[in-house]
Amino acid sequence: MKQLMQTLKQIDGKGYKAYKSVQGHYKFSDFDLYIDYVQGDPFATPSKIRAVVPAQKRALNANWLESYRRRVATEDILARKVGGAIAKGNFFIKGSGKSGNIQFDRPGQEVLERSAVQADSKSITVCISIGLPANGRKINGREAEKLFADVIPAILRNSVFSISDQEIEAAVQLADQQEAIKEEMNKNNWISFVANGSVLPRGSGVSNRPLKDAVPFQSPKENEVAIEIPHQTGPIKGMAVEKGITLIVGGGYHGKSTILEAIERGIYSHTKGDGREYVLTDPDAVKIRAEDGRQVTGVNISPFINNLPHKQDTTFFSTENASGSTSQAANVMEALEAGAGTLLIDEDTSATNFMIRDQRMQKLVHKDKEPITPFIDKISQMRDQLDVSTLLVMGGSGDYFDVADSVIMMEAYVPYNVTDEARAIISENPVGRSSEKEAAFGSISERYFQQNSLQTRKGKKSKTQAKGLTKILMGQTDITFAATEQLVDTSQTRMIAEIIQYLDRTNALGDRTLNELLDDIEQQMNQKGLASFTIFKDQHPGDIARPRRYEIAAALNRMRTAKVKQRK
Question: How far apart (Å, rounded) are the C-alpha atoms in residues 316 and 331?
């Protein structure tokens, strides 16, 4: 530490590039400081530092780290404390550009594996980005001394060193309870569980925090189950959504989309107090919607679309500007290709002609003139032949009653099981539409991406960079995936960008199918960690969080430079 302070005094007032001399490893009284990357300009991306707290200074109980879920919960609660300490610190460092700017990958409502804090039996590592102080383009050494001698220690003092064992234990116990619910879901073939008392609505369209004074969730009696969970006296009760085809119906503004959104976010664990911490969903559930204008490359959409004009091949379908129906067909087939076990669909974001052709339209436009086989005629085949469930919000077409295993009606945010009523309506009002399905669902693509799909070069440099939650700049092209609704954190997008860069840097695409590639990516994340995909794997790994295979696939599938082949 003294050496660092002495160096900062010596370079005070010099040109900004002299900051490069402070890169290295320094010992403080309670932690080790690693300055891994030094920015070249006060207006450039902030510098990257790591504070490593040894176990002798802040020990973690071994049982907090004994499993993946417990370690992630421990790292998450530590990251929340660090983020809170930075937000509340009100630190003021003078200077130009990004001087004194402190950036940290603070978690949102979901609990994700991320690189911001890493914990093991030996140490706790905290990764922070800081803007090194400058006056114009000259070094402000005094402010830099304050930053390293006062601000960084204060952040650690108010987070890593102040967090109680009880706070960490509570986070770990919640993770245990969530895991127990998931195990019960697997045992009983449930695709989702929504606990009684859950707060499903969010604060606003731009806030992911729970809505105050919301109606607490209460399961219909027909769907209510009780689950014994650890660290609690008595079971937790709530609604179980069974495998198969479930409709959520009801009038507008009664909570249909709200419950679907909570279920689609249930693929992630949530932090205590979120209101959705006991809303859990099949981790292989994928939200599907229409996506006009998206790129589609070599996807077999023939289970849904055939006999296009001009005899365009739908077993290897490509377009730079998909329509609503073709995009939704491609989204379904890509999800199945990547291994989805449940599809989540809201009619409000679906293409009408993809979802249904009613009796009158069938009479006017005969099947031999209609290339689309609507989703209603394939949904049972997905259940019976592929073991893929569907949870569908439907407010406009009662034809779906015929294919539903269960019907839940939302009324003023309260769910009711109306399956028997729906079946009575079927008997009293039979539908005259004809099924348009073939005997089998059809084949699912096994595509592999060619290496030259990854065009990351921009001039002499290779660059892949996240630009917000749903956009990645890859070389000279953009990958946009705004309709990928289960991506929840920009750090996940940064991780996807790192994965694309890694696949290009290591020429790793090979002849593996997309599904095999996703398996290998997940295996590497499991065995070697998120940082193994970055060039800083042995240093500051960047602000990254773990994405699912489905969101990685979504980005790859939307590359406008994609070139694919199908495995024969």
Answer: 14
Residue type at position 292? D
Distance CA 174, CA 195 (A): 14
Q: Which residues pair with 245 in a beta bridge?
A: 390
Cα–Cα distance measured from residue 487 to residue 66, given in angstroms and rounded to the nearest whole number:
28
Please state at what angle helix 514-528 crosses helix 549-557, rounded to 10 degrees: 130
d(CA 159, CA 61): 17
Which pLDDT does position 157 carry in this prediction? 97
Q: Which residues contact 261 (CB under 8 A, 6 or more apart)?
A: 200, 202
CA dist., res. 305 & res. 351, Å (int): 13
What was the pLDDT predicted at 312? 85
Locate 448 and state its tokens. Answer: 């592999």
Distance of alpha carbon 53 from alpha carbon 69, whole angstroms? 22
- C-alpha distances in angstroms, 157 versus 36, 103, 154, 160, 466? 22, 17, 5, 6, 32
Task: Using 70 as the pLDDT threshold, list the residues of the chain that sit under it.
Answer: 568
Instruction: Give every CB contact of residue 208 below 8 A, 6+ residues apart in sequence.
Output: 108, 109, 202, 488
Identify which of 320, 256, 268 has the alpha carbon closest to the alpha carbon of residue 485: 268
Sheet hosting strand 414-417, strand order edge to edge: 285-288, 342-346, 389-393, 245-250, 406-411, 414-417
At residue 324, the pLDDT reads 96
Enter the tokens of residue 11: 């370079």
Exposure string of 105-132, with b = 16+ CB inside 10 Å and e = fewer, is bbbbbbbbbbbbbbbeeebbbbbbbbbb
CA 127 to chain CA centroid, nearest Å: 21
Whole-angstrom Cα distance, residue 486 to residue 460? 35
Provide the 3-class DSSP secondary structure of residue 44: coil
Whole-number Å distance between alpha carbons of 287 and 264: 7
With a threshold of 0.85, does the pTM exceed it? yes
Q: What is the pLDDT of residues 21-30, one digit of tens each?
A: 999 999 999 9
Q: CB neighbours of 367 closer than 8 A, spacing ≥ 6?
A: 434, 436
CA distance 355 to 244: 18
Query: Quick check: helix, strand or coil at residue 407?
Result: strand
296, burial (CB in 10 Å: exposed 0-12, middle 13-18, buried 19+):
buried
